[in-house]
Amino acid sequence: MVDLKGKTAAVTGSTSGIGLAIARTMAKAGANIVINGMGDPVAIEKERAGIETDFGVKCAYSPADMTKPAEIAEFIALGEKTFGSVDILVNNAGIQFVAPIEEFPIEKWDAIIAINLSAAFHAIRAVVPGMKKRQWGRIISTASAHSLVASPFKSAYVSAKHAIAGLTKTVALEVATSKITCNCVSPGYVWTPLVEHQIPETMKARNMTKEQVINDVLLDAQPTKEFVTSEQVAALMLYLCSDDAAQITGTNLSIDGGWTAE
Ligand code: NAD
User: CA nearest 175: which of 118, 250, 241, 85?
Assistant: First the structure.
């Protein structure tokens, strides 16, 4: 069992989907948590309080907008001020938009690059000094099968996710002698609001029904014909936080039902 007692994990985009599962999994292992993300304040407070009561740890909420560098720095500072350190950073916040390149809205490109890529740069930049001082750290980003392969109509997302894999390798080399590892995890399709919301856009872009999108586009990519679960992604990230994983760094770990084996 991985024991994270005395450690703090800050997880971006953890009010929903995969991020919430990561936050709860790290809390179950004993870490104090900083959650972050958008949504209904009442629902977010329920999730925050639930993490404390379910797992007996402390949990703070940061409303930092991942498009704003100063707020991202405040997100890391909140964890350091409240709990004394941020030992584990998970760059997970992400959005998606599906459209042909010639119709792709410029503001959607800018938002996806900001949230899915630049936010990780800003958070890593802010968290590394403390990790170096303490000589321990785990930096993990939620990349995607789309960090390794492309799909049509996802130009911004695929570009951002490929770049996350490059950022991961670079940072891993820079912090290698400070007992800090930096990795990314690349899920295939996980049934979360992010996937649910892209179905209408994909129906439009490909002229398909909802069932066709699920079976012929989403699950078609995955040889197992099953969605990955948020809990499976979180369990892999928890392993990366263990001492057994101390020599795993600079990698891009697939958890995609065989998608990228094809
Ligand atoms: P989700 O929509 O359920 O969660 C996204 C989270 O990011 C939410 O908490 C949301 O509030 C937060 N967020 C969005 N914009 C933000 C902003 N400007 N500032 C702060 N937080 C913001 O989606 P998910 O499927 O859980 O996705 C999480 C990560 O997993 C993303 O990086 C996504 O690209 C990646 N991913 C998802 C899948 C999948 O199939 N669902 C597959 C591979 C990778």
Answer: 250
Distance of CA 58 to the CA centre of its chain: 21
Kindly report, residue by residue over 18-52, the tens digit of the pLDDT.
Answer: 999 999 999 999 999 999 999 999 999 999 999 99
The answer to whether 34 and 9 have CB atoms below 8 angstroms apart is yes
Any idea where the domains of the chain sit in the sequence?
A: 8-189+229-261
Please say if 157 is a catalytic residue: yes
For the chain, how big is the Rg over CA atoms in Å? 18
113 lines ligand 1 (CB under 6 A): no
Which one-letter DSSP state was computed for residue 244?
G
Q: State both tokens at 215.
A: 């079976």
93: β partners:
none
How many Å lie between the centroid of ligand 1 and the Cα of residue 195? 9
Model confidence over 147-197: pLDDT tens digits? 999 999 999 999 999 999 999 999 999 999 999 999 999 999 999 988 888
Give the separation between CA 134 and CA 238, rounded to whole angstroms.
Answer: 20
Ligand 1 centroid, distance to 231 Cα (angstroms): 14
CA separation, residue 82 to residues 29, 47, 60, 62, 149 (Å): 19, 18, 8, 11, 40
| pTM (predicted TM-score) | 0.97
- Decide if 48 contacts 34 (C-beta within 8 A): no
What topology does CATH give the domain 8-189+229-261?
Rossmann fold (3.40.50)
User: Residue 243: phi, psi to the nearest 5?
Assistant: -65, -30
Please give the structure tokens belonging to residue 72.
């991202």
Residue 195 beta carbon below 6 angstroms from any ligand 1 atom = yes
